[in-house]
Amino acid sequence: MRILVTAAGIAPSTGGGRVGILGMCRGLAHRGHQVTLLTTNTDGSGVINVPLGTPVDQEGVETYFYQAQLRNMFSLPMATALKRMVPLSDIVLIHSLYQFTSTIAAHYCRKNKVPYVLRPHGTLDPFLVYRRRWLLKWAYIKLFEVRNFRGAAAVQYSSAMEEGMTQRFVSGPMRSIVIPEGISLEKFTNIPIRGSFRTRYPETVGKTLILFLGRFDQKKGIELLVASFNELALRRTDVHLLLVGGGDSDYINKIMGMLRDRGIAHRSTYTGMVSEQEKIRALTDADIFVLPSHGENFGIAVVEAMACGIPVIISDQVGIWQEVAEAEAGIVTRCDSAEIILAMEELVGNPFRMRRLGENGKKLVAMQFTQGRMAERMEKAFNRLIVEFETLS
User: For residue 285, what is the enclosing H or E element?
Assistant: First the structure.
């Protein structure tokens, strides 16, 4: 298959979004398909320094970057490229919503009678829709996204929970497929020796390390984690909070202020954005991974933590919470501080329990959340969609 993939941006600051998109592309390419990714050079309010309009290797994926314009909301060069490349494709995978790039890609697919798969990627999570500019989002859904959804050969979700969330906003006959995301296990086979990360941060040595890793955003529940850790720190002296990731500077400053106000800044470490290698070191040295998210269509960071054998504590708003609970790979709570505190207390000081959950997590990832498994599912679904589309055309 000639598979064209579109995304508004894949800057490192997008965190799990970049990991998931590139992982899908690599997985399909490894199965022998011709995969091309079109995106822009957007990076929040800025841009990343990459060659424009020429193929660039992004972790093994042939990627074309185009100039983001008008406060990174448009990209006429990418629209021109889509006009040329969509007719040459067997199927197009469109990531995310509310984007000029996704809407123009769907337009050219319909115009050229090329089947396309729309992947909302959590953008219709009610927590995000209603948090800010919800009237503008609602108008965009009615003006553009309803047509984009109904014209799609299928809508691809990362979890059954995401599928349920999306159907609240876009009704009507739509074909949906649920395909969990996957990671490459290669980078988790020869992980660094435990302790290498802690040597860079001496304050973490000898402590039970509780890790948050991901993009700093209100929906991630970081404020809830800080409040919960504050209570845990009052009861125990052997715990330390590790915060890894980047995001909006104002929100990061807010979290740092919360830590100072509660008098636990010295019991926590914030690293900012780290390299892929440093991320693996952090995961290797952590004892417990916590993500009390208010909304998560999947949870790629959770999968990476489980791949490293770390027990996870996640909210029941994370897309894969049911799989984690059924596999006994972690503890699932509501977005409730009292429940999160109890979950952390249950694991801290109980190495046998932590080890058992961690081992179960590694098994779960190997069985369900690998890049190869994801690509196999997508290949079957896309082949079927192309045949059905040609039959109906």
Answer: helix 276-285
Reduce the DSSP state of residue 60 to 3 states and report it: coil
Q: Which CATH number belongs to the domain containing residue 356 in this structure?
A: 3.40.50.2000
Average pLDDT, the chain: 92
| C-beta atoms surrounding 237 within 10 Å | 9
Q: Of the candidates 92, 83, 79, which has an alpha carbon nearest to the alpha carbon of residue 111?
A: 83
Q: Is 235 exposed, middle or buried (0-12, 13-18, 19+ CB in 10 A)?
A: exposed
Is the same domain home to 141 and 225? Answer: no
- Both 190 and 90 in a single domain? no
Range of the domain at 332: 186-368
**What is the average pLDDT across 126-137?**
63
Domain match, 304 and 379 both: no
Contact 246, 272 (CB under 8 A): yes
Q: Are 173 and 18 in contact (CB under 8 A)?
A: no
Asked whether the CA dihedral 11, 222, 284, 160 is positive or negative, the reply is: negative
Quick one: 264 and 318 in the same domain? yes
The secondary structure of the chain in percent helix, strand, coil, rounded to multiples of 5, reads 50, 20, 30
- Identify the CA nearest to 119 among candidates 242, 240, 48, 25: 25
- 222 shares a domain with 143: no
CB atoms within 10 A of CB 262: 17
DSSP 192: P
Distance CA 184, CA 105 (A): 28
Residue 331 confidence (pLDDT) above 70: yes
Which residue type is seen at 126?
P
Q: Any idea what DSSP says for residue 144? A: I
- Total number of domains constituting the chain: 2
Are 129 and 215 in the same domain?
no
3 state SS of 151: helix
Residue 33 CB neighbours (<10 A): 18
Rounded Cα distance, 320 and 164, in Å: 13
Report the pLDDT averaged over residues 301-325: 97
